[in-house]
Design a protein that fits this description.
The chain is an alpha/beta fold. The chain has one domain: Collagenase (Catalytic Domain), CATH 3.40.390. Helix content is about 20%, strand content about 15%. Helix 1 links the parallel strand 2 and strand 3. Helix 1 crosses helix 2. It is globular, with a radius of gyration of 17 Å.
Amino acid sequence: MAQMKITPEAYVDQEGIWRGGIVPICWENPENYAQETAWVEESAILHIEGLNREVSSVRFVGKDNQRRPWGKCSDASNGIRITIADQWPSSQVGQQWMRDASGAKIDYGAGKYIQVPTRMVLNFTFGTFPCSPRENCIRIIAVHELLHALGFLHEQLHPNAPQWCKNRWANHKDVMGFKPVMATPQYDQDSLMNYCEDIYNKPLKLSEGDVIALRRFYRPQ
């Protein structure tokens, strides 16, 4: 029986998209992690930007507008701020804004909104939870969390995710996004954002659906 071809899907919070694709980014505590931070920065360039900027229009901008190294955060840094800690990795979804109690962005007049940092945590030591090989884990987790910071939601939240996948994560607290949209027609089991697949033990590679979604919201120039 011939296999049915499934068009890949991605689930994205449209309200978290960084307009223009310029994303300031910095490290809160990079001391003693020169190799690990270099792996993260290299992976971001190769898999999210593209070595020749061919994958998307995303431009991670570090200290002094450098492509890399991203450098240490200053008090005024207001893009993605990454903390290195031995805990479960996490990231807020997309560009962050001051919001009221209902979750609506606060309009300070004439469509003016106040941006606040997008907070991220990356784990380089894996004492809290095991993950190996270490370099591969650091690179894959970093790209996963950076896609969150660009507005990507977990693929298992997609309405068309299989029921077994939804059941597996039904009791897991998750971020649904303020304006979730389907980027392409179908659920993508191969997405790097899909916790129903063992993303940590695979080679680092964005799925076809991940790339389609990335290019929809961050179209290469």
